[in-house]
């Protein structure tokens, strides 16, 4: 792990590459957070970046002082974080993995420009398929793995907590649960370790008078997995939820919180999985990824995780990455 990468940068400067729905929503959420004093927006369509910067700047008087402007790759040099949202949008009926070829091509251009500037900060990959593109960004950049992470299943996990909170009629912040594996159709709800403020899930369900435990778990896991498809069908794109997830990851890094989040990072033998990026609970701090956290998984969950990893590896092999 490369140490103290933020010490080589302006910790209060962030760059967002890609000013579509997701990028602009991330910029808006981050502006409100007060984490940064400088934000650069980069897009292939410079007018779009300028328009988003102007629009968000008009809200600064209601937030905290921050300089927001449209820039180019020369502006990335001393940024502490680069958030990459650029890529083709997922359309109704498409899976995240359907975007592979289009977005790998886009990433080759982006990462090439970043590498030319001897960038020393952290790359946060948000574009889909996020696990594949995290691996692509790591390989193309040559940066240490801890400095190239994906937003992974942070949003999926929030969706799971939200659904469980509604189901159990409790504050979703009191729900402790993870979605692991691919940010996509092979994701796994790690039910073995779910608890509500320390109370095992099944016991809490019984306290609430629920008896169809297996049926409810299956229904909720499907709702979480299909959330994006449902939103895309109704409003053509998802962006507010992921923007909040990105803001939360930024907080953990900039504040060196050592928070545990299911970001996408490379596996090296854990659960028999090698050389592929996927989401597992990880310590997130100023170094970016700072280590995996072992969680309770049963045999079936481990098999599903290994299958999810193989799905991603097959895609990587098909695309010669």
Can you describe this structure?
The chain has 321 residues and is an alpha/beta fold. It has two domains: 7-150, Rossmann fold; 154-318, L-2-Hydroxyisocaproate Dehydrogenase, Chain A, domain 2 (Alpha-Beta Complex), CATH 3.90.110. The protein is 41% helix and 20% strand. It is built from ten helices and 16 strands. The chain has helices spanning 21-33, 46-57, 100-116, 130-141, 154-168, 201-207, 213-225, 227-235, 240-254, 299-318; strands spanning 10-17, 38-42, 67-70, 79-84, 122-125, 148-150, 175-176, 179-180, 188-189, 195-196, 199-200, 259-261, 264-268, 274-279, 282-285, 288-292. The strands form five sheets. It has a six-stranded parallel beta sheet with strand order 3-2-1-4-5-6, sandwiched between helices. Helix 1 packs across helix 9 and helix 3 (100-116) packs parallel to helix 4. The longest helix has 20 residues, at 299-318. The chain starts with 9 loop residues before the first strand and ends with a helix. The mean pLDDT is 93.
